[in-house]
Amino acid sequence: MIEFVNVTKRFEAQAVLEKMSLTIEKGEIVFLIGRSGVGKSVSLKCLVGLLKLDAGEIRFDGRSTAELDEKEWMGLRRRCSLIFQNPALIDSMTIYDNLALGIRAMGLAASRSNERGLIEREIAQVGLDLSLLKRYPLELSHSTQKRVSVARALVVGSEALLFDEPTTGLDPINTARINQLIEGLGRAGRTIWVVSHDMHCALAVADRILLLEGAHIAADLTPKTIRSSNHPLIRQFLEEADARPLH
Ligand SMILES: Nc1ncnc2c1ncn2[C@@H]1O[C@H](COP(=O)(O)OP(=O)(O)O)[C@@H](O)[C@H]1O
Ligand SMILES: [Mg+2]
Predict the structure, then answer these.
(1) Tens-of-pLDDT digits for all 247 residues of the chain?
(2) Which structural domain, as residue segments, surrounds residue 136?
(3) 234 Cα distance to chain centroid
């Protein structure tokens, strides 16, 4: 579903990604972990076209993004939603209108009742009450806003969801809830790519855990195989996670 082939991304002299390759299959839940500033967010932004590559290729569903025109980029961003660390809802609009924006921009609902049906289905899917639809973003907690931002991706029919640090800044209870939501979406067949520095989350929900280090994928592991890894940074992440139990 998602392929990076020798992707290189530089900022001036700094090569953040250098011949970075990875593959994420349809329906997989993959965590990309790595130290702060190593290029995790940059890799997500390259996929959705917010940053241009210096070399290499990214393929989505078999198609190279280098070939896409503006309209096709819009299509890719609908099928593959990037969910930012900050929910970035529009504060002056109700939750309903925030969710309707994408549907209307893309002409996805044949009628208003169709639109409401779509929105109600996905707000329930992310575990929220329909009464929230009348509320405004600033009336809601950060973690509820986060769920709304996930619903915003679901209403436009995204098949792949990219999460940038989804649990950063959340308390342990809401962290566990967001992890369950991510896992549920993955088990329901969506392709999930989570960027995180939280090994607990990766161990709890990932099918595969990739380590970004030295501008490329330095380890490709699973929650089962990771404890036998000799990679010093993997060992360090595991030790930190073990020293900081969730509850
Ligand atoms: N738009 C940009 N212009 C210049 N440098 C950038 C830009 N975006 C990211 N960087 C640099 O790229 C590196 C990787 O950033 P990022 O992907 O945000 O790290 P993280 O792994 O913490 O998500 C950092 O050194 C950052 O300063
Ligand atoms: Mg980041």
Answers:
(1) 999 999 999 999 899 999 999 999 999 999 999 999 999 999 999 999 999 999 999 999 999 999 999 999 999 999 999 998 888 899 999 999 999 999 998 888 888 889 999 999 999 999 999 999 999 999 999 889 999 999 999 999 899 999 999 988 888 888 888 999 999 999 999 999 999 988 888 999 999 999 999 999 999 999 999 999 999 999 999 998 888 776 5
(2) 2-243
(3) 21
How many separate domains does the chain show? 1
List, in sequence order, the alpha helices (H) in the chain: 40-47, 70-79, 95-105, 112-125, 142-155, 172-187, 199-205, 232-243
Query: To which residue do tokens 């969910």 refer?
Result: 83
- Identify which of 247, 162, 226 has the alpha carbon closest to the alpha carbon of residue 196: 162
- The best mutation among 8, 31, 41, 216 to test binding of ligand 1, ranked by most ligand atoms within 8 Å of the C-beta, falls on 41
CATH of the domain at 119: 3.40.50.300
Mutate to test the pocket of ligand 1, among 10, 16, 194 (most ligand atoms within 8 A of CB): 16
pTM score above 0.70: yes
Residue with tokens 């609009």: 93
Tokens representing 191 are: 């392709």
